[in-house]
Design brief:
His_PPase_superfam; two-stranded antiparallel sheet; seven-stranded mixed beta sheet; PGM_Phosphatase; single chain; alpha/beta; 8 helices; Rossmann fold; Phosphoglycerate mutase (2,3-diphosphoglycerate-dependent)
């Protein structure tokens, strides 16, 4: 049994596009970054009580900008004066299986890793300098040479689960996307808010199951409410 915490990335520029009269198919949204709100949401993960309760020994992220930025800002911050780079306790992996489904919109089209790294370093230098060192330790060795060309492997989620099962780590954070989370959970969850951790168990037979029955409560009724103030609440058990 492994403890898995799923996290949807912070609010992206793609999510705010409609408010600005920009089509989701606008080329300017190609592998778009986080909005200012999304950056703050990523920062807020640092003090999320659920995350701080775990001592993660493995963190996996999608290679898309909005996810890897969330991962670096929210989970990759370290005190470089106290922790030498070679002593970092957590392994970070970039996994293409976690990229979002739906290649029809630019924000889901990835970038070559070298280009992504350059852009991300520039952003982190301004937004989260204490995450820069962690970025040096993101393992990209499993990314195929064909990336970011179309990645349409229909079995990719199952392959990712199999990869997790083969590893020794027990406490794992996964930063990815709404449809990926739904697929991982076999659609047993509703809309996924940004940067709200979802606790799961990875069973020995490869099933990812929610630790508790849960529902998502929204304080924003607009279409962009998914990226607004939301939280996951445990349902009350009968008889209590």
């Amino acid at each position: 049994m492994k403890n898995i915490v799923l996290i949807r990335h912070g609010q992206s520029m793609g999510q705010t596009a409609s408010r600005q009269g920009i089509s989701r198919k606008d080329p300017s949204l190609h592998d778009c970054s986080l909005s200012q709100k999304g950056i703050q949401q990523a920062y807020d993960l640092r003090k999320d009580p659920l995350l701080t309760a775990y001592n993660f020994d493995l963190v996996c992220t999608s290679p898309l900008m909005r996810a890897i930025s969330t991962c670096a800002i929210g989970l990759g911050h370290i005190d470089s004066k106290k922790i030498p780079r070679e002593d970092l306790p957590t392994k970070f992996f970039v996994r293409v299986e976690l990229s979002e489904f739906g290649s029809g919109i630019p924000e889901n089209a990835g970038r070559p890793i070298e280009e992504l790294s350059k852009i991300l370093r520039r952003q982190l230098k301004v937004e989260a300098p204490d995450s820069l060192m962690c970025l040096d330790n993101f393992d990209v060795s499993t990314i195929p040479e064909t990336w970011p060309n179309a990645y349409n492997d229909p079995h990719r989620i199952r392959k990712f689960i199999a990869w997790l099962q083969q590893r020794d780590e027990k406490n794992i954070a996964v930063v990815c996307h709404s449809l990926v989370i739904k697929t991982l959970l076999n659609n047993r969850i509703g809309s996924i808010p940004n940067c709200v951790p979802i606790e799961c168990d990875l069973t020995c037979d490869g099933q990812l199951k929610l630790k508790t029955e849960c529902c998502i409560e929204s304080t924003d009724s607009s279409n962009e409410g998914r990226a607004s103030s939301k939280r996951i609440k445990k349902k009350k058990e009968k008889g209590k």
